């Protein structure tokens, strides 16, 4: 699947795949508004060049489908970037290991790095008109106040806030309740995200505690999410978020992870009724889950490769013809999205009696085994145009291990069980940190000399956090001791909130509140 604009097209190679340092990166289809800056490859060469020229590294995190920070071709900006920095552009969807390490809080983002990889400054989603001023200030700081900048970098690295807060289901529930929008549903008062992980946690909290308000927050949120304009009336599927809290101005992009989360939520709601709690509405939840599953199967499954695709975004192109939609589907294959959809589709196929969907899940699992996992069990995050990216991410390892085990439990195929065990064993040997008793989010960087310590991540994105996935997998295997050890060790430097919903859900599954 590719560009839907009257003729098929594919994305140009991402700039971190450039053939050689200094080569001009091909402009991706969706980044036609960025000038032809000579973005470099993310590797040792860019940092060695920065050290040799005594300039900072400029890391530009930008993804196809998003607005760029270089909105107009400006020769002055291009010269500034290329002459005063060692510039590297990274697609954050392909390199979540870099995003996880630097944690910019969003993109597009500009990060100014020292030659050892440490952050000196960053700017996230700034207006393009301010980019030149930001870069000029960074050049001046590096030239005139370098010692002060390095002292601040050293101080920031030395500051480690104490991990004083535990994650508890009640605390996450209180955070969600405080942020709940009682007028429109959902959470927060600005940009409104769908947040299926939070809604699933609240429904689980209701089942465990009987708290009616938790159930009410779910119901009052799901109705506008599944209605127009958040639901695409033309092609179906749900948009990822709304620019306004009333859900009336959706961002016209669709995430496969959001669709999967909503399917799981609707099946949770259906199961709640099947178990005897208000049977009225059971059929409607099943029908809505079926509609989203049909959308995933029709629009987000690549029949040629037998894989699920991660996202669809609008594009800037000539006006489409009658019945055509100006949308682009990311052609890369992502391990986490495919594993998540394998888990979701297998469950949905059973509840909705959809064997065709089950066959698609099996096909995607086979692709994971054959193309994205090594014989030792290391999982690559992404495959695009024959190149694999970002091996050994914790979320990828645990989601793939869980998906393969779920398929084994359904079909009894020993190949899936063996694959699941290999993926878990690799994570245990390479990512488990005995000092903290938790899994690190990523393996150490392969770039020599880069200051990149192992980090434990505990916040959800569109996907559950890695250690909560690990705890759930151990429970799935019947190993409550290992699950309990993980759940007991995590501490936070700030109070828990909605982004810890998956961890709170794991606690409830384990039997703790």
Question: Could you explain how this protein is built, in words?
Answer:
45% of the residues lie in helices and 12% in strands. Strand 4 (109-113) and strand 5 form a beta hairpin. It starts with a strand and ends with a helix. Strands 1-14-13-10 form a four-stranded antiparallel beta sheet. The protein has helices spanning 44-53, 75-84, 96-102, 131-144, 146-158, 169-179, 196-209, 212-225, 256-274, 282-299, 335-352, 355-372, 394-411, 414-430, 466-477, 480-489, 501-510, and strands spanning 3-4, 57-61, 86-90, 109-113, 119-124, 165-166, 192-193, 241-242, 250-251, 254-255, 301-302, 307-308, 311-314, 327-329, 333-334, 380-384, 387-391, 432-433, 438-439, 491-492. Helix 2 packs parallel to helix 4 (131-144), helix 6 crosses helix 17 and helix 11 runs parallel beside helix 13 (394-411). The protein contains 17 helices and 20 strands. It is an alpha+beta fold and 513 residues long. Mean pLDDT is 85; it is low at 1-33. It is globular.
Rounded mean pLDDT is 85
Strand content: 5-15%
Quaternary structure state of the chains depicted: single chain
Strand order of the largest sheet: 1-14-13-10
Overall structural class, as computed from helix and strand content, comes to alpha+beta
Terminal-residue CA separation: 44 Å
Assign an overall shape.
globular
The main β sheet shows up as: 4 strands, antiparallel
Q: Which residues form runs of ≥5 with pLDDT under 50?
A: 1-33
Number of helices: 17
Give the strand tally: 20
Radius of gyration: 23 Å
């Amino acid at each position: 699947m590719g560009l839907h604009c009257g003729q098929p097209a594919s994305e140009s190679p991402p700039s971190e795949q450039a053939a050689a340092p200094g080569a001009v990166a091909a402009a991706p289809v969706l980044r036609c508004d960025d000038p032809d800056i000579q973005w470099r490859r993310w590797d040792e060469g860019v940092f060695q060049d920065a050290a040799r020229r005594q300039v900072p590294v400029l890391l530009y995190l930008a993804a196809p489908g998003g607005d760029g920070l270089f909105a107009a071709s400006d020769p002055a900006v291009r010269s500034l970037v290329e002459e005063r920095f060692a510039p590297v552009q990274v697609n954050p969807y392909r390199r979540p290991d870099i995003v996880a390490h630097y944690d910019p809080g969003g993109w597009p983002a500009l990060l100014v790095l020292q030659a050892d990889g440490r952050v000196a400054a960053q700017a996230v989603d700034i207006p393009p008109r301010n980019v030149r001023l930001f870069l000029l200030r960074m050049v001046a700081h590096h030239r005139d106040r370098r010692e002060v900048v390095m002292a601040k970098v050293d101080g920031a690295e030395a500051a480690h806030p104490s991990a004083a807060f535990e994650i508890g289901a009640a605390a996450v529930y209180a955070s969600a309740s405080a942020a709940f929008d009682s007028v429109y549903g959902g959470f927060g008062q600005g940009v409104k995200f769908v947040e299926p992980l939070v809604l699933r946690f609240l429904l689980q909290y209701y089942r465990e505690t009987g708290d009616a308000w938790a159930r009410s927050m779910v119901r009052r949120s799901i109705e506008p999410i599944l209605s127009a304009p958040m639901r695409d009336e033309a092609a179906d599927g749900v948009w990822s978020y709304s620019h306004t809290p009333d859900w009336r101005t959706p961002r016209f992009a669709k995430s496969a992870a959001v669709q999967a989360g909503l399917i799981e939520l609707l099946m949770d709601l259906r199961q709640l009724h099947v178990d005897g709690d208000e049977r009225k509405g059971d059929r409607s939840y099943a029908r809505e889950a079926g509609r989203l599953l049909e959308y995933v199967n029709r629009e987000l499954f690549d029949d040629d490769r037998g894989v699920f695709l991660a996202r669809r975004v609008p594009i800037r192109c000539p006006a489409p013809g009658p019945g055509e939609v100006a949308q682009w589907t990311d052609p890369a294959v992502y391990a986490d999205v495919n594993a998540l959809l394998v888990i979701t589709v297998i469950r949905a196929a059973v509840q909705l009696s959809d064997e065709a969907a089950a066959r698609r899940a099996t096909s995607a699992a086979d692709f994971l085994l054959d193309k994205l996992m090594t014989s030792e069990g290391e999982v690559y995050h992404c495959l695009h145009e024959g190149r694999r990216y970002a091996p050994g991410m914790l979320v990828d390892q645990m989601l793939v291990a869980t998906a393969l085990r779920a398929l084994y439990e359904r079909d009894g195929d020993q190949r899936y069980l063996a694959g699941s065990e290999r993926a878990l064993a690799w994570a245990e040997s390479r990512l488990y940190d005995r000092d903290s008793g938790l899994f690190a989010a990523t393996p150490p960087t392969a770039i020599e000399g880069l200051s990149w310590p192992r980090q434990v991540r505990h916040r959800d994105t569109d996907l559950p956090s890695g250690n909560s996935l690990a705890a759930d997998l151990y429970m799935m295997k019947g190993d409550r001791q290992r699950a309990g050890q993980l759940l007991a060790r995590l501490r936070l430097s700030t109070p828990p909130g909605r982004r810890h919903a998956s961890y709170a859900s794991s606690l409830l599954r384990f039997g703790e509140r």
